[in-house]
């Protein structure tokens, strides 16, 4: 990376040598009654994944403020220049809630919910992607590295290349890339592929996602492919730029969770949580955004049947389910919330007693300190996603368990399962009977076996933190032959 780390004025200067482009800025804005704008740190996997890289590189981050119609000058926060992109209320509805989260999200997650295809949403998606591309082009120094993130911004690489052919452009897809048999439902499938192919390097969570992408390129475009490399021919059919698709499984700031969980305050809080739960023999934990991809209903159903069957003692077992609010204006999320809350109410009605609930359902987000305490308090961690790009909660749990206690039950349909097997107890969340057997086995796992598995998991996770992930992506991106090199 040229001149990495030098920061210049965002207006009129040379620009930044590293620019991250993501749907959200790593802060949330709020406007009070007097119109005064304030901001706080915002939670989320991508934020915790990228923050250390940005601070190290003193880069610029282009993203949406999270509020409608908010225009704000670029500003510095925690060692990063933050560059807000304004979205109107109608764009939030069509680009964010609509095309991103009611078209692409379900399509890319195995159509667990039916994707909706609306031309107006697509128009807004294109318009907003163009705005992000222009904002990034305005911040990038000559020859800078620009790293574009996720499914909300798949058209940005091509748009940005048209504006700034001098840039080195990387794209990382945080969610699964679907098999072409599903992807081809998308009326704008070719535009999306061409948009992504504007990048030099396209990163995915799993090898399977990268090959799904290359298969889609082969099937739906005329660009020649060889292994994981796509050749972009020029208008006269001459060979030109090469685009590489590859897996870069994301991780977390492992040391932070390890340190937090070792701190006396967090350990005391973990004990307090168990005491507040009535000191049950077994504490199970689920931590998810309230999203239909996470398999929360399947998990609660399996847990309820286990209690019903008497295979674990309802009086001495508790499931804590943290379900953080997410995308609350999207119909499928509203329906999910209703279903989950009905299930929780039913189970607590049936198996709860005064002073003891079968499920503690918490519709909130918590700071990392509280999360680390919850992880420490949990004997069994349940990650039962129906489809999940990676699942960072699984890695956080492992990083928090330096005591080697605790069992991870992990869905086969997560990117994490590809990386972590055979340490976790793997489940197919569609197979309720199979999942019940595994949850019961997890609750009774022999302590020696528990430690053996957790030791293996920690060996994998502690060495592969998010700093290594970003270094490895940026390392490959910057080492690629220049765009003029012919195939
Ligand atoms: O996993 C994809 C992702 O967009 C993450 O980057 C983000 O943390 C999470 O989903 C929450 O999404 P949203 O920005 O829609 O709240």
Give structural notes:
Residues 1-12 have low confidence and may be disordered. The chain has helices spanning 45-57, 89-108, 119-139, 156-163, 180-183, 189-196, 207-220, 254-262, 264-276, 296-309, 331-351, 368-377, 392-400, 415-420, 432-443, 447-463, 466-479, and strands at 16-24, 27-31, 37-41, 60-64, 75-77, 80-85, 140-149, 168-172, 201-204, 225-226, 229-231, 242-247, 282-289, 317-324, 359-362, 380-383, 407-411, 425-427. The chain is globular and about 70 Å long. It has 487 residues and is of the alpha/beta class. The protein is built from 17 helices and 18 strands. It starts with 15 loop residues before the first strand and ends in an 8-residue tail after the last helix. It folds into 2 domains: 16-250 and 468-479, Glycogen Phosphorylase B (Rossmann fold); 254-463, Glycogen Phosphorylase B (Rossmann fold, 3-Layer(aba) Sandwich). Helix 1 (45-57) packs across helix 17, helix 8 crosses helix 13 and helix 9 (264-276) packs across helix 12 (368-377). The structure holds 6-O-phosphono-beta-D-fructofuranose. The site of 6-O-phosphono-beta-D-fructofuranose has 11 residues, from strand 1 and helix 1. 6-O-phosphono-beta-D-fructofuranose is lined by residues 23-24, 44-46, 150, 174-175, 326-327, 389.
